[in-house]
């Protein structure tokens, strides 16, 4: 095991699978099994998941919904995904805690940094829901912020591509993959890794990022074990 404590960032869209909306339970089950296998290495694991499969802030509206209202709706979408993932993990016998940036006492604990760290130390999977609790910030930023707060060794950004490329590999067959790249190179080349606020937070706090394909079986465990998977972004 290379990393003692990691934060896994998952996109909400990934949970759709082949659907156009909502949650594909086959994908949800697959992710839960991947997470269970990774935990067998002894790693402490926290998770942030987006809500784009249900609602993506103001981008999903025609302007009739206020931006702030739309962002709060997006936060609620992340809670739906977080609860679904929590249930899938517990069905496999894992111990979990869901912590929300917005008070929802009936379904989650409030985010308290020391409590989150204690849960991780006890081997529980901690899921951070509702983003940062503030509008105008993405779940990428929430992932960076929470990772820094819990002193994670690295952020693992699980996507549907196997790393960072010179161009979009789904659109450009000549795109070449980076095995590793520095934060400054990402800025210079204008590559899309995370939103700029999230990426800058990682850079300023010397928090490395690995972008990898979450859908490839065994990848999460390989990354945590230190195998060469995906693309590493570091200072």
Question: How would you describe what is shown here?
Answer:
With 235 residues, the protein is α/β, with parallel strands linked by helices. The chain has a single domain, classed as 3-Layer(aba) Sandwich (Carbamate kinase), CATH 3.40.1160. 35% of the residues lie in helices and 20% in strands. The protein is built from seven helices and eleven strands. The chain has helices at 25-39, 67-91, 113-121, 139-149, 183-189, 196-204, 219-225, and strands at residues 5-10, 44-49, 96-100, 109-110, 125-129, 154-159, 164-165, 177-178, 180-182, 209-213, 231-234. A nine-stranded mixed sheet has the order 4-3-5-2-1-6-10-11-9, sandwiched between helices. A two-stranded antiparallel ribbon has the order 7-8. Strand 1, helix 1 (25-39) and strand 2 (44-49) form a beta-alpha-beta unit. The model has no long low-confidence stretch (mean pLDDT 94).
In short:
With about 240 residues, the chain is an alpha/beta fold. The chain has seven helices and eleven strands.
Examine the coordinates and then state which fold CATH places here, giving the name of the CATH topology: Carbamate kinase
Any idea what the CATH superfamily is called?
Answer: Acetylglutamate kinase-like
C-alpha geometry: globular
Residue share in β-strands: 15-25%
Lateral strand order in the biggest sheet: 4-3-5-2-1-6-10-11-9
Helix/strand/pairing category: alpha/beta
* Most strands sheet: 9 strands, mixed
Percentage of helical residues? Answer: 25-40%
What's the tally of helices? 7
Mean pLDDT comes to 94
- What's the CATH class, please? Alpha Beta
Give the N-terminus to C-terminus distance in angstroms: 22 Å
In CATH, the architecture is: 3-Layer(aba) Sandwich
SSE succession = EHEHEEHEHEEEEHHEHE
**Structural Rg:** 17 Å
Residue stretches low in confidence (pLDDT < 50, at least 5 long) are: none
